[in-house]
């Protein structure tokens, strides 16, 4: 099954754009630049949407404007409107349990404490979608997580996060064309 919707999770606005929690937005912005798409505000989808052609497949990119913890509302609205199956969705998000400089692709599963995923699963009533998990590392203490994700990574972290975003862009055609196993082999061995 091909991917028809790629969602970058994050928080809208300039105050948040450099934060670790916004790596999903970073990826979608880079994808739109690579495939010459332009984001437009779409109030009916509670977010910004771009349409791109990736390896002959028409793919919508979505950056919800609902803030991370309410991402499901935006995702559900576009999924319902275009009748997109959960298996045709790739959600790109920050992952505390993975070190910066590491990226993993996963199909299905729980939310792992990620509020954006939690709300998405609740809104869709389904957890069977693909995830591109961009490692941001963990602050070490659970009480520091909220502050950690709402701050910018340091320079060395930015460099390795940008590297894995680039690596992920290099395999996006495989992911979109249902060659996820091949993309996983490439990403998970780098």
How would a textbook summarize the main sheet? Answer: 7 strands, mixed
User: What is the strand arrangement across the widest sheet?
Assistant: 2-3-4-1-5-7-6
**Helicity range:** 25-40%
The assigned structural class equals alpha/beta
**CATH C-level:** Alpha Beta
Number of domains: 1
Tell me which CATH architecture applies here: 3-Layer(aba) Sandwich
| Total count of helical runs of at least 4 residues | 6
Terminal CA distance reads: 26 Å
What CATH calls the topology is Rossmann fold
Beta-strand share of residues: 15-25%
The succession of helices and strands, N to C, reads EHEEEHEEHEHHH
Number of strand elements: 7
| Residue runs with pLDDT of under 50 for 5 or more positions | none
Structural Rg: 15 Å
Concise summary:
With about 190 residues, this protein is of the alpha/beta class. It is built from six helices and seven strands; from the N terminus they run βαβββαββαβααα.
Can you give a write-up of this model?
A hairpin with a 2-residue loop joins strand 3 (47-54) and strand 4. The chain has one domain (5-189): 3-Layer(aba) Sandwich (Rossmann fold), CATH 3.40.50.1470. The mean pLDDT is 95. It is α/β, with parallel strands linked by helices. The longest helix is centred in the C-terminal third of the chain and has 22 residues, at 155-176. It is globular, with a radius of gyration of 15 Å. A seven-stranded mixed β-sheet has the order 2-3-4-1-5-7-6, with helices on both faces. The chain has helices at 23-34, 71-82, 115-124, 145-149, 155-176, 180-189, and strands at residues 5-8, 40-42, 47-54, 57-64, 89-95, 103-107, 130-135. It has six helices and seven strands. Helix 2 runs parallel beside helix 3 (115-124) and helix 5 runs antiparallel to helix 6.
């Amino acid at each position: 099954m091909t991917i028809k919707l790629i969602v970058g999770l994050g928080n809208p606005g300039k105050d948040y754009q450099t934060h670790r929690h916004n790596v999903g937005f970073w990826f979608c912005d880079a994808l739109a630049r690579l495939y010459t798409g332009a984001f437009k505000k779409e109030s009916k989808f509670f977010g910004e949407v771009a349409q791109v052609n990736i390896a002959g497949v028409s793919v919508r990119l979505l950056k919800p404007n609902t803030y991370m913890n309410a991402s499901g509302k935006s995702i559900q609205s576009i999924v319902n409107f275009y009748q997109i199956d959960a298996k045709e969705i790739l959600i790109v998000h920050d992952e505390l349990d993975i070190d910066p400089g590491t990226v993993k692709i996963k199909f299905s599963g729980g939310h792992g404490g990620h509020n954006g995923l939690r709300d998405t699963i609740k809104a869709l009533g389904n957890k069977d979608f693909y995830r591109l998990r961009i490692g941001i590392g963990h602050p070490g203490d659970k009480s520091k997580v909220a502050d950690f994700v709402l701050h910018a990574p340091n320079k060395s972290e930015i460099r390795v996060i940008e590297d894995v975003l680039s690596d992920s862009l290099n395999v996006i055609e495989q992911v979109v064309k249902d060659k996820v196993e091949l993309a996983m082999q490439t990403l998970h061995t780098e």
